[in-house]
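Example 3.2
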Amino acid sequence: MRFTDSPAITLAVGGADLVFEQDNGSMHVGTSVWPCSLVLAKFFDRWLSVPDPNPYAHLISFSGKRAIELGAGCGPSGLALTRLGLDIILTDTAPVMPALRRNLKRNRPSLPRAPKIAQLYWNNQAQIQALRPPFDLVIAADVVYLEESVEVLVSTMEQLVKPDGVVVLGYQLRSPEAHRLFWEKKDVISPRLY
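Structure, written as tokens:
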């Protein structure tokens, strides 16, 4: 991977600047920083500082909660949430792992602890079970973009989230077909989808 020719993205979160290197020359979508990963990080950062009554208090009360991120990519959402105190496992496919590891190493001094990272191909039963579900929070950003992947994404979310858990999803509409199919299938995980 060639990280030196790619731009770095700086994300101010939790009083620190996290820096994410990209490999924009890669053929894997997870080696670039996608906008909603930054938006999701800033959402949590912003609402953590709001006193009660806070409409998102149930989402941002991280104490004792376990979380997992699907499609972590370069790591902005997951590493930001680690910075903010969430116990989270960051997951993605094998080709994206070098980018995720590199950014974890780069940002480790700004994190209270190193989050776990794991390879996960959606709906791979052995990999899902190795993660020891269920989780209180399932986080995902910019993962609804291919119609062909929607069913395995929804199935994976359902297998990972606790019955009283929550799925927090942020994405930009890139495929009307994938968007429509996701919202048809999401009843499996509703009403716990934010």
